[in-house]
């Protein structure tokens, strides 16, 4: 075969596809293997973390599924392969990964449950110890590698360097029958006939494929009607409106020093914008004599008035990862319970049937950890009360009363009690008489949360988060069975679960929360609280923000949406997806519980539940086109194996399904001539 990897340069003069290919007329065959077989050709569109994970799964599964046939893998992405667009190296070093190094790896370990092989590979900490000069060409990366430890949060530039090294490792160590061809290019169109798929690239090159895997990650979308109205108002009145987008891609120069800016959203995107608009503009950090972090302004910062529906920032990451008591096991929402729900004749309602069980699992795990890990803070041993806590899943008021009585008797400190409403909505019912009091209340909340999240004496918080994560398995069972109601899937499960988990279990690192406090004390950030309402005021020509927790009203000349775009196939800006949708070759997920019932759309790409094949508007599955990631239907995006085992399992199953095409049939493109590539 040719060299293990070759590169088609976007800037080069790529040769157009042979006319015989476009016409579907048999022509010269592609190069064949020793047994006369033509290469099985796969095109992976997107080479960020999802595409890199797919390449790892392809290389891992080929020796078992396609051992004797040449395989060619085209990896297509205009951004450096490995990090892709979001994790590209060309961004501010202030942008951090939201995952500690201990959890970052492309490669699965032996504990991962998947059908495919699990060959070992370096996690980011392993890579940091053996990084090459090529890996460390960026001084930021070289500095962070020296400081690496399991709880360290690397910059996105360092993560990009790791991911790029993984791609190089996979290419160099690919099975002997595999050739990987990389393209610094953008896929813009797919053309099908009965036997093959042609992937057209922006440069003019065309790739003939037996299978195509879409892994572009999060997509840009056209603004929804409410955002269009805000943008139109801003244009008419000379204001600034920054819609939902990646912070690293936003033009923040339009926000002037000292300008009042309303910020809608207090989750992870909010943290990214904070850093770029403060330290990114020359501000710095120092500690006073008591050790409290202080912000030293540069004078170039805008003033950020921030609020959201909940009104408080995401809770910070825990500063530890070990429980001190007995490890809890699923009790109320188990695989068996999921099977029983699936067997019911009526659709499963997430809000009625599932969410109460998730809450019960979290509460049980919380108290089991408190009683077994911190027995000095309770008045009775776990063995005496375990049976009562086992009543949590019944939903019966009498059982709830028995549990509450045990808690009142055995858990004297209110800080040790599981209070879900206070945990989830700490400003619910809060009404204060001044914006200043509300701002101070939220600062106090963040201060207390930061202290608690770093203190293993409250390890019951970790137990509750782990119980929430454990619920993903049964939920995935229900999704795969198609027994969740249409409304549950599109309006309850995805929005609620990801927001709730993000809020309590995947917030910013502790140092970022500490910086937010310093910015709040410095007056650079002012909190507006919950129930945030944005009103375009045409009379004054400004945006007006109002909150529900205090008589606060802020007029501003700029509005910043601190969140990522919501998934939408209909409004997708990706040229490839847009063209597929326009001709009915793909569609948004539309769900009904029964014929004639209302349809609910998730906005995500509709795919086959078992193998991720893309569904057309008529409901048929494409034989050769697959898709994976946060923008596709289902539960949970593809991601690092240790963080998202279900997403990883879905990727593995999809790749194995795709590779079986190569094992079962002759190359669908074997009757077509080889598409020449410009080799760099």
**What is the alpha-carbon Rg in Å?**
27 Å
Separation of the first and last Cα atoms:
17 Å
Strand content: 15-25%
**Considering DSSP H and I runs of 4 or more, what fraction of the residues is helical?**
25-40%
The CATH architecture name of the largest domain reads: 3-Layer(bba) Sandwich
Text of the CATH class of the largest domain: Alpha Beta
Spans with pLDDT under 50 lasting ≥5 residues? 1-32, 668-680
Tally of helical segments = 19
**CA-based shape:** globular
- The total of beta strands comes to 22
Question: What number is the mean pLDDT?
Answer: 89
The largest beta-sheet arranges its strands as: 1-4-3-2-8-22-21
Q: How does the major sheet shape up? A: 7 strands, mixed
CATH topology of the largest domain: FAD/NAD(P)-binding domain
What number of structural domains do the residues give? Answer: 3
Overall SS class: alpha/beta
CATH homology superfamily name of the largest domain: FAD/NAD(P)-binding domain
